[in-house]
Amino acid sequence: MKIEPGFKLEQQYDDNLFTARSSSAKRDDFVTIYTPSLIPKLRLGNHMFEAGYKVDIKRYVDFTSENTENQTITGMMDLGFPRGTEVDLRVEYLDTDDPSSTEQETLTGPRTARSQFDVDLMARYPTGPRTKLEIRAATTRFRFDEATRANLERDTIGTGASWAFELYTKTSALVEYDFETVDFLVDAAPGGNEDTTSHEVKAGLRFDPERKLVRKITGGYQVVPFETLESRTGPLAEVELIWRP
Amino acid sequence: MKFETRLNAAFTAGTDRIRTTKAELKLEQGLLRRFFLELEGAWTQDDFSFNSVAGGGGRKDTAWTLKGKLGYLIGDFLLIGGGYDYTYRASEVGANEYVRNLAFLDFSLNLRP
Lengths: 245, 113
Hints:
A: 245 residues, mainly beta, 12-stranded antiparallel beta sheet, globular, B: 113 residues, 6-stranded antiparallel beta sheet
């Protein structure tokens, strides 16, 4: 077993802590972030196990009431079996004050006290000399500390599968299907229930060169029928390029 | 530690309950063995038009973010870096607009036995 300790020290200057619109309302401050971390790793034959813990200790010079600690706990298990079968498990728990995305920041503000628990399971199995099947399942639990955010608390459960057919060396055609249910804990006023069961179908190409360009290009269609709101449907596109000159 | 050049471009649409369209470009570039450069630019549009619960009122928000970082490796385990993040968010509902500048300096120590 290997244990990798780490420590990061970051000094920030933020000129708009609370994302105010006008210059006169802006509040600035210096923030010091101490991040100790610990990652134990264990390899047993073709199997790999890893755990991790880190905490971001944020300390503000003027706005000391904003001082906070963000914790991340992770677990990972990569199992390798004969004939190219692989099973991967990822678990992550966040206890944080950061919004998860710009869209969430718009709803909740730059400080968003919340917890998030993710579990991802993926299995890959070669179904033939040129074909491979990937099956995945995931669940996420979103919770917010402030009661005023209760309408955003939700559980998601998803599952999906990808089937890849090798056209040429390191070039595969892909067909993907994903299914997800979103269950909001508090159903909003009549007409506002956003619980959904969504379906996505995508097709595309994946390139896996050992060097140089391109990884994945997919396109498809999404159907998200809300229980009471108007359904959302539309095209999807995803392009991921990695270039190593 | 070895630095490599990575250019990552992604375009996604239709995520989550607010329809988000995002285009981003990231570059990680090793320089002169011990320096590294990270550049990132992203354009994000959040469309609230179908969403009543989020309080969007049928608006679209558009955000631009630019990030840059220059780092230097000291010995085998210590990284020192500094950079700058810029965010501009425009909103059809004015109250959600803002500009944010963030400058940072960091030291990272990673011990790998």
